[in-house]
């Protein structure tokens, strides 16, 4: 790495900031970029200017420029930061996960929201946490040392996820607000088990990641070195070592004693919508080309998060959400009063279906019996299963497909961390790509730190399911082997998610 390389990375950052500023200053009236110090609560109303400034962050131009900044800053940090200090952060990353889990479980974002921009002292935070713990069934009541609250939140503040406004006084910032459920503290006292009901699911995602995912990842290396490295693991799953169970993850969630985890999981999957923008979901497929009352089967669709978004954008379509019976049983309740018109009008319906069983015909009121749907939508499904199981699933869907049925797979398509000289750059499809950055860019071809979330998810899938996110070549091989042909790949703006369309052959 030469000084010329360092300056090239610096130039990437400067140019990206200029591009973002042009977008914001072109508005009427001109807008400022949202401040990290100012919370933005999705559950609250804002001025039109604040809402517009937030919306602009998700536009193609701003999102792409932001990724350039993140990638360049990550590469600069890796270059100039002392290696031992970087090592300390990497090997102790579990500390950060544990602290985030503590913050979410003790409802500190909600406590600090009610405290406002002046913040709350660690003594007062400790008092509030103790009150909430006393109201939580099964929670152990303990004396809380405010100094420990301060030490915990100071680490979180160092990572910019909360703000220390004065010594031992903390307030929410934009990032803390993101994991705020929006529930009032009094609501949490009365019904802590309903914290995630009617929310966007982000707090539930943080809770799940800090609980079962964090615990099983502590056993990942042990699992890999004792049989997990084989093509099909010979020693069960990392989950088995963490929780002394032989059950698969979804089965384990349904075991007695895991009722809260099962409910939280449904909400957490709702929260994963933030992996993409709504525009990517809405425009990832030619939904407008489908006829009125065309039926889209949302395979493994959980509580219907994606189907709700799509049904609002395309009211002429019907969405049938399929999942395991215990998930379907809680789907309507999980939404509370939200989107009742979609469910009551049967534009979004729920159907129990294990997708490793032969796909059974089903009824949609007002439409009739459905045996060959127009679209099988499988979002974040294939990445939950090893290749042998994905082959089985795709073969079942192929047998249930009619000649007009399309298969839409929505998962990360992982690029290589180097240039892919075998990619067909002349193809109109966005499947295999040579690089995600312009020719001659100093950035890693996969956008480095800006894409890290996709690769982290890949390893989470390995630990949970002996599964993975896939490259385009890997998903292409699976579809070809099961009677499907990929006809188009549309990559999401700003992330590694992609919309892969296949047809029967």
Unreliable runs: none
Question: What is the end-to-end distance?
Answer: 50 Å
Secondary structure tally, helices:
22
Biggest sheet layout: 7 strands, mixed
Can you give the mean pLDDT?
93
For this entry, what is the oligomeric state of its chains? single chain
Q: Which sequence of strands runs across the widest sheet? A: 6-5-4-9-10-12-11
Helix/strand-derived class?
A: alpha/beta
Number of strands: 12
What fraction, in percent, of the residue positions are helical?
A: 40-55%
How much of the sequence is in beta strands?
Answer: 5-15%
Please state the CA-atom Rg, rounded to the nearest Å: 23 Å
Shape: globular
Any descriptors?
3-stranded antiparallel sheet, 12% strand, 505 residues, alpha/beta
């Amino acid at each position: 790495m030469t000084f010329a390389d360092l300056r090239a990375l610096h130039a990437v950052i400067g140019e990206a900031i200029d591009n973002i500023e042009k977008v914001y200053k072109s508005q009427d009236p001109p807008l400022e970029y949202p401040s990290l110090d100012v919370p933005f609560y999705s559950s609250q109303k804002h001025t039109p200017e604040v809402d517009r400034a937030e919306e602009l962050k998700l536009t193609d131009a701003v999102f792409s420029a932001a990724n350039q900044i993140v990638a360049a800053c990550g590469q600069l940090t890796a270059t100039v930061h002392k290696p031992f200090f970087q090592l300390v952060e990497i090997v102790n990353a579990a500390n950060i996960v544990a602290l985030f889990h503590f913050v979410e479980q003790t409802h500190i974002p909600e406590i600090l929201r009610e405290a406002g921009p002046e913040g709350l002292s660690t003594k007062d935070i400790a008092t509030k946490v103790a009150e909430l713990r006393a109201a939580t069934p099964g929670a152990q009541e303990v004396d809380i040392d405010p100094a420990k609250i301060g030490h915990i939140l100071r680490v979180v503040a160092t990572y910019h996820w909360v703000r220390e406004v004065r010594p031992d006084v903390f307030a929410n910032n934009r990032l803390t607000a993101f994991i705020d459920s929006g529930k009032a503290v009094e609501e949490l006292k009365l019904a802590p088990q309903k914290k995630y009901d009617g929310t966007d699911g982000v707090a539930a995602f943080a809770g799940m990641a800090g609980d079962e995912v964090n615990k099983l990842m502590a056993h990942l290396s042990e699992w890999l070195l004792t049989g997990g490295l084989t093509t099909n693991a010979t020693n069960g799953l990392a989950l088995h070592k963490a929780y002394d169970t032989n059950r698969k993850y979804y089965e384990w969630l349904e075991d007695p004693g895991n009722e809260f985890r099962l409910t939280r999981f449904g909400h957490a999957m709702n929260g994963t919508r933030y992996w993409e923008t709504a525009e990517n979901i809405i425009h990832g497929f030619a939904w407008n080309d489908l006829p009125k009352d065309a039926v889209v089967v949302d395979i493994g669709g959980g509580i219907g998060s994606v189907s709700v978004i799509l049904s609002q954008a395309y009211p002429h379509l019907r969405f049938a959400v399929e999942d395991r019976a215990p998930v379907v049983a809680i789907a309507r309740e999980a939404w509370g009063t939200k989107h009742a018109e979609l469910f009551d009008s049967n534009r979004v319906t729920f159907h129990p279906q294990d997708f490793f069983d032969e796909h059974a015909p089903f009824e949609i009121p007002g439409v009739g019996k459905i045996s060959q749907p127009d679209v099988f939508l499988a979002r974040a499904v294939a990445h939950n299963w090893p290749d042998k199981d994905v082959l089985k699933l795709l073969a079942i869907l192929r047998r249930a497909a009619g000649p007009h049925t399309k298969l839409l797979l929505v998962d990360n398509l992982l690029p290589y961390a180097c240039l892919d000289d075998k990619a067909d750059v002349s193809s109109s499809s966005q499947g295999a790509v040579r690089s995600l950055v312009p020719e001659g860019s100093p950035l890693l071809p996969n956008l480095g730190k800006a894409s890290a979330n996709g690769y982290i998810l890949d390893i989470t899938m390995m630990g949970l399911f002996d599964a993975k996110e896939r490259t385009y070549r890997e998903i292409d091989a699976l579809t070809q082997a099961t009677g499907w042909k990929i006809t188009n790949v549309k990559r999401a703006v700003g992330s590694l998610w992609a919309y892969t369309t296949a047809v029967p052959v």
